[in-house]
Design brief:
alpha+beta; eight-stranded mixed beta sheet; five-stranded mixed beta barrel; 16 helices; 24 strands; 24% strand
Length: 595
């Protein structure tokens, strides 16, 4: 028999009445009632209330012991009296009358309590992460993460995929984010890179003749932290398939996601067949390629309205003459909203760096007119056209933005979410997935005015590849796709370009010479030259999936040992200095410039 416990702290029930049991765990909470001392004992599995009378010789020990000390108790299970039961606990109908105890490890005074769910500063939580992880919500999130990964692995194996591990030490990639570099001792002056993703390796697995691959892959990118992105490292479900088209990849991922989200959440999945939205359509209707489809508000382009003579809004007209666009968001039946509602939205938009949002509400007395700061600039006929274009009714309101297209898209994208939040239009009990498809192969760099890849340079262009028109590269669409849920991008993927000659042509558009492609992508281009199957894949982010399932807003809440915003591990004190001896072995000298 295990000397530390006969049961865990969530097992005992009325069926165990009068049994003598041994439990071990942490002192979660104490309540001193004078002649009785109640202790909530906690382990990984749950809580059990234990009680000791003041006539016991170890009463003083328990009375003085600090919270989070580890103890082992032996005692008799007894039913709680009616009225004292705690039905929120699986063990809430019983308690353990302690007969003996053993202190296994005493705790120091706590820098932060484990009992309760109070919010504490990030630096305290991360420095004492081992305490933070003992808290109920955090503990549940990490268990959820483990269960999600196990489920994903099982589902992928059932779908016919094989799990392989790709190298962690690899070569630096000229595309993508900033690499983490690792100096080579045996090759002085040269460096490995930690993989930003197993992109080239997973394609090489397909070239090697395997049909379906996956792994729960660690990825490393030297990027700044965000709420949905950890600094340094993250995990993704990396997968690739041979002899497939775009729809084949979609079918696998939709099956996986539906099963996964049904298994770990009670929220409704809005569409189990995920909508396909083209990139151009997404930018027009939502201002972003990461739309939250729970939000019913749509963006409309109304630039043409301002060519009418009965529109006297000269500020917008002047901007339009210089190439600006006007887009809008219509809110239904908001005529009774106070002026402060509209002014606060306008003020908020200015705080986001925009020039604000012009607005008015449609009303009708003897004629149709616009009520609000800019309503007077629109004649009745222009308002009727606006109603037709935007499907507006009397009592609806309109928010408008005018400027360069990328600026208008940016502000209306976030305004769409802001306004929907203010009007309580988003159903928080839903998951709304969609695919964003038909990404442009290339885009124009705003600073250099040169053509560059817009997404993944290894993607297959759409259309007849024998007749592809490289003289108009900005018109070329690619078999590239993103999967989005509730406004969170879970992953990007693509059908890959497996034809070396076509790859050289596409890279030449982005300014790469054949020699550069051969040097920078030698492993890939060489492998493709020996017969590669058509293949494609995707890599959904595990961290973001768990974040959605746990209903958390920050990725830190579902990660075991995250870094802070400055990419520092406060608990392990990383990054740290290393000894000169280690640097000498690596042929490295420090040359740090002081500010």
């Amino acid at each position: 028999m295990n000397k530390y416990r006969t049961h865990n702290c969530s097992e005992l029930s009325e069926n165990d009445n009068n049994k003598v049991v041994t439990l071990s765990g942490w002192v979660h909470r104490k309540r001193d009632h004078g002649n009785l001392l109640f202790i909530d004992l906690r382990d990984h599995f749950g809580l059990t209330q234990c009680v000791v009378e003041n006539n016991k010789n170890f009463f003083k020990v328990l009375e003085k012991i600090r919270p989070e000390s580890v103890i082992s108790v032996t005692g008799k299970v007894i039913k709680r009296e009616k009225g004292t039961e705690n039905l929120e606990l699986t063990t809430g109908k019983i308690e353990v009358n302690i007969q003996s105890i053993k202190v296994l490890a005493e705790s120091n005074d706590l820098p932060m309590p484990v009992f309760g769910e109070q919010d504490y500063p990030e630096d305290i939580r991360l420095k004492y992460r081992f305490l933070d992880l003992r808290r109920e919500s955090m503990h549940k999130n990490i268990i959820l993460r483990s269960n999600v990964i196990s489920f994903i692995r099982s589902e992928m194996l059932n779908l016919g995929f094989l799990e392989f591990q790709t190298p962690i030490l690899t070569s630096s990639s000229p595309e993508g984010a900033r690499d983490f570099l690792v100096p080579s001792r045996l090759n002085p002056g040269k460096f490995y890179a930690l993989p930003q993703a197993p992109q080239q390796f997973k394609q090489l697995i397909m070239v090697s003749g395997f049909d379906k691959y996956f792994q729960i892959a660690p990825c490393f990118r030297d990027e700044d932290a965000r709420a949905d992105r950890s600094p340094g490292e993250f995990y993704q479900l990396d997968m690739e398939m041979s002899f497939v088209e775009q729809e084949d990849v979609f079918k696998v991922i939709e099956t996986l996601m539906v099963n996964l989200f049904k298994r770990f959440s009670t929220k409704k999945i809005l569409n189990t067949k995920f909508p396909r939205i083209s990139y151009d359509e997404a930018m027009l209707n939502y201002g972003t390629d990461k739309p939250d489809l729970r939000n019913p508000l749509l963006i409309k382009d109304i630039t043409n309205i301002f060519t009418r003579e009965d529109v006297k809004f000269d500020i917008f007209k002047k901007l339009i003459s210089k190439g600006s666009k006007v887009r809008c968001i219509v809110t239904k039946n908001t005529k009774d909203k106070p002026r402060s509602f509209f002014d606060n939205i306008d003020k908020w938009a200015k705080e986001q760096g925009a020039s604000g949002l012009a607005y008015f509400t449609l009303e009708k007395t003897d004629r149709i007119s616009g009520k609000g700061p800019v309503g007077k600039f629109f004649g009745e006929e222009s308002l009727k056209e606006l109603m037709k274009t935007c499907k507006m009714d009397i009592g609806d309101s309109i928010f408008m933005s005018c400027g360069k297209i990328n600026e208008v898209e940016k502000i209306l994208s976030v305004s769409r979410d802001k306004i929907a939040g203010e009007l309580n239009l988003i159903d928080e009990n839903q998951f709304a997935f969609c695919w964003i498809v038909d990404y442009p192969m290339f885009e124009l760099d705003e600073q250099t005015k040169k053509i560059k890849f817009s997404h993944n340079p290894f993607s297959m262009p759409q259309g007849d590849i024998e007749k592809i028109d490289l003289t108009n590269p900005l018109n070329i669409k690619a078999y590239q796709y993103d999967i989005v849920c509730n406004g969170v991008e879970l992953s990007s993927g693509a059908i890959r370009n497996h034809i070396p000659e076509l790859m050289y042509k596409l890279f030449s558009v982005a300014g790469y010479k054949k020699k550069e492609v051969d040097e920078k992508f030698s492993g890939m281009i060489n492998a493709l030259s020996y017969g590669a199957p058509p293949h494609g894949g995707i890599a959904p982010g595990v961290d973001r999936i768990v974040m959605l399932l746990a209903n958390e807003k920050n990725i830190r809440e579902i990660t075991l040992f995250p870094m802070n915003q400055n990419a520092q591990d406060l608990m392990m004190k990383a990054p740290s200095n290393v000894e000169d001896k280690q640097l000498k072995e690596l042929n490295i000298k420090k040359d740090i410039k002081k500010n």
